[in-house]
Structures are given as C-alpha cells and as structure tokens.
Specification:
The chain is an alpha/beta fold. It has eleven helices and 19 strands. Helices cover about 25% and strands about 25% of the residues.
C-alpha cells in the first residue's frame, strides 16, 4: 500500500518532533527547514530551555509537560543521549502576586508531578547564595530542570533521517490558497513538492506564510538573554549547587545556572518589541542589560559586577492568550498549523509532536483552546 506522504515545514521543537512521530507511525515524511534544526534564527535555537510543569489553573500544559518529560526520558534511553538535566526548578514567590502559582498546585497533584512548598527560612538555609528579600514562599519541582535546545533539535533530525525520513534545507514560499486543498509547495530553489498533507510548524514565520489567517494572531517579540561569569572557582552558581529558577515579582525574571561553561543565564520574561526573525539584528538592548544587572546584583549578591560573557537574542512567537495554535487551515483541509509557542513551547515538543501525529493520521479535532476559532470570539 502507498504510504501517506506528509510534508512538515519547520524543524524546530514542534516540527521536528511531529515529523519523527509521523514517521514512526508509518507515514512517508519530508521535513524542510530554511536554515537547519535549532539554527540561530529559530525560536528553538540557543543552548538551553526550562523544563517545568507549574502552569496555573485550568490549562492543559501541566499534563502535557508531565507527559512530555516522560517522552524526553524515553527517547534519551532509546538514543543513549542526554538532553534533560534534572536539577529542579524553584519558583520564588511573593504572597502579593502568587495567584498563578497557587492555582498550579491542584494541577500538579492531578498530573502526578512531585513538588514541595517551601518557606523562606527553608530556602535561605538550602540556597544561601540567594537573597530572598521580598520572597514569601516557594515551589520546588525537584524532578524538573532544563533541556538542551539546539542539540536536541539536531538529534531529532538526525534520528528522523536515519529512520528513513527525507530532510531538505530549503525555504517554503507562501502557498496559494485560491484553489483548496493545498496541492504543492513552492521551494526557494525553484522546485515544487507535492504531498498528501502539509504541516506548517514555522514558529514566528507562520504569519509570513499565511498573512490573511495568522498575520495578526502571532507576534514575534525580541527577547534578550544574558550570560554572566561567576568568580573563578566559585561553584555556588553552577547547576550542581543551584536549581533552575523563576522569580515572580514586579517583573518575571528567570535563569538557568551555569552549565557547559556557558555562564549564569538570566532573562527578563517581559515581552519585548516586535521583531523580524529573518532580518532582525540580534543585538541586546542596553536598557534591558542594565535592568538585568540590577536584578542579579540584588538577588545574587556575590554576582555583583560579574562580567557579561555572552548574549543572545531570540524571539517568542506570541499569541494574544499565550496558548498554542494547533488546527487545520480554515480553507485547506489538508494543511495543519502548529505554532504560537509563546515562550513556553519548547519543552512540550515530544508530546505535542505525538499529539499532532495522532490528529493528522486519525483525522481528529484538536482542543478548543488551540483552535483558530477562539480568536474570532475576541473580535
């Protein structure tokens, strides 16, 4: 019997894992990416991403993240590679603004995620290198941690190819939707690719490919990332001595302790200015650097005057409600749209790819909170 041919556009966390799951389920899959898996322009680029399950009340992401973590571990064992580092995730919270995290506790229990609520004295005793001023309590996810981003994207693509998948490093031009269903893709080298179904997992480029449908629904925002150098021989700020952390104060700061000699990673999660992922200059803002330096000096006093040793500019592909987009194109039944990671999508890659493969191959409907129809209700 002829295999169903599915083209997946985008080899990041959503597209790469979707392509692999489709291949494992018997489809013939062609995976395309303009600059390669985990490239520096991609939202899945860079060294690390946080793996956490705390997500607030009434949402699908705690359960999805818990399942995704199981898949990360399963594929690690299968491939004999490590991408997940279980250093724990600490949430530092003020009782003035902790509704999000308070609302997460029931979801964590329901998903079977281990966690503990910590008092400020408990945290001070355990992590004396942190100044807990203004922190009233905390949540520790001991089995969470961080993921290797660029390396895992490349590994997924390598395994996909080894198992018989076809990978082509080419850009896809905006498809014609005048005569649905979608019949073929026009590629940047002048060739065309025909498939039975198409999956567009292009992150911040989704709006460029489908401006009429997604142009106003996904906003790429500039996000500055900073790496500071701890004092020589000081191990208090590496991933053995510290967990990954999130600090929910007036602004939400987060960080990943030093790993692979990359330094102490810190970022302000506040959504930045609009950014073009193709042509945008990836130079960090001096104002953001000053704000982050002030924060590091306050929260990690021994890191005062620590040198800035590396920077990175990535982007969030932000939806208005921070929920994903997982749905068919409204005019082309054989085209699926996966995106809207909104700064928290990477960790979900294995589980979302598995889910997308099931939706596509078994002709199922996605969750309502991920369907495009939800945006029409906002108008």
């Amino acid at each position: 019997m002829k295999k169903t041919h599915i083209a997946v556009i985008g080899a990041g966390a959503f597209g790469g894992w979707t392509a692999l799951h489709l291949l494992e389920r018997g489809a013939h899959v062609t995976l395309l990416d303009a600059w390669g898996p985990g490239n520096s322009r991609a939202s899945s680029g860079g060294e690390t991403r946080i793996m956490r399950c705390t997500y607030g009340p009434d949402q699908p992401y705690t359960e999805l993240a818990a399942h995704s973590l199981k898949l990360w571990k399963r594929y690690e064992r299968q491939w004999n590679r490590q991408f997940f580092h279980p250093d724990g995730v600490l949430w530092m919270l003020s009782s003035k603004d902790d509704a999000y995290e308070r609302g997460s506790l029931a979801a964590l229990r329901d998903a079977g995620v281990k966690f503990s609520e910590l008092s400020t004295p408990q945290m001070k005793k355990r992590w004396p290198q942190i100044n807990f001023s203004g922190v009233d309590w905390g949540i520790l996810e001991p089995d969470s941690g961080y993921l290797e981003a660029r390396a895992s994207c490349q590994a997924v693509a390598d395994v996909f190819i080894a198992l018989g998948g076809v990978y082509r490093q080419l850009a896809v031009l905006p498809p014609s939707i005048d005569e649905p269903p979608l019949k073929e893709l026009r590629l940047s080298d002048g060739t065309r690719l025909k498939a039975d179904s198409y999956v567009f997992a292009c992150g911040p480029w989704l709006g460029k490919l489908f401006p009429d449908i997604l142009g106003s629904l996904i906003q790429a925002t500039k996000q500055d990332i900073f790496f500071f150098g701890p004092p020589a021989g000081d191990s208090r700020f590496n991933d053995i001595q510290l967990p990954v952390w999130g600090d929910h104060g007036e602004r939400f700061f987060y960080g990943i302790p030093g790993n692979f000699s990359r330094g102490f990673k810190v970022a302000d999660d506040t959504r930045g200015a609009a950014f073009d992922p193709t042509s945008g200059e990836r130079v960090v803002s001096e104002a953001t650097l000053r704000r982050v330096r002030d924060y590091v000096e306050f929260r990690f006093p021994a890191m005062k005057d620590a040198p800035l040793i590396e920077t990175r500019v990535c982007q969030y592909e932000q939806t208005s409600d921070s929920d994903f987009i997982v749905d068919r194109h409204p005019r082309m039944s054989n085209a699926w749209l996966l995106g809207g990671g909104s700064g928290h999508g990477f960790k979900h890659g294995p589980a979302l790819g598995e889910l997308a493969a099931e939706l596509i191959l078994k002709d199922k409907k996605p969750r309502k909170c991920w369907q495009l129809s939800r945006f029409s209700k906002e108008k």
